[in-house]
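Support request from a user on the community tier.

User writes: "When I paste my structure tokens into the form, the page sometimes reloads and wipes my input. The last time it worked, I copied everything first. Here is what I submitted, just in case something in the input itself triggers the reload:"
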């Protein structure tokens, strides 16, 4: 899934993000609004991981979302 698809489908993907990263609040998800950089930054802050680790988690999540989208 590309950046525009994530942003466009954010309403549906928020639940998936919440399942993946349970420490994200509804306010976090509203503020992130599908922005990958904001998502990575919030993961970094909430989980205490390095920037690179948070970015990799987001990248992996995007790839998983794309696989699920293609399978549907």
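"...and here is what came back when it finally went through:"
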């Amino acid at each position: 899934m590309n950046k525009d698809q994530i942003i466009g489908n954010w309403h549906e993907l928020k639940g998936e993000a919440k399942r993946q990263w349970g420490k994200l609040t509804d306010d976090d998800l509203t503020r992130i609004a599908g922005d990958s950089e904001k998502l990575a930054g919030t993961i970094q802050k909430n989980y205490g991981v390095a920037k690179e680790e948070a970015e990799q988690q987001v990248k992996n999540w995007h790839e998983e979302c794309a696989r699920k989208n293609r399978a549907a």
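Agent notes: The reload is a front-end session timeout and is unrelated to the input. The chain has a mean pLDDT of 91. The two ends are 13 Å apart (CA to CA). Escalated to web team.
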